[in-house]
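I am sending you the entry underneath: sequence plus fold tokens. Let me know what the token row says about the fold:
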Amino acid sequence: MMWAWMRMVMALAVILLPGGFPLLLAYVTLRTLMSRWREARAQAIRLGRAVSLRDVVASLHFKELVRDARAAL
């Protein structure tokens, strides 16, 4: 539910604010990082090892950010 409200707020920000696009890009990046962090943590628990932010950031690809940005709009 919270993501739906954030999506609506971000769409309005992109339309109304001149700096809305960087704000949208930051939102999409944060959302993707959080999703990846949860996946990496679940996998680390299954494998019995620790997860680091470096592992999560290293697994990100720009095309995934673009796909998530398109889905957010």
Summary: The radius of gyration is 14 Å. The chain has a mean pLDDT of 79. Helices lie at 2-16, 20-47, 53-58, 62-72.
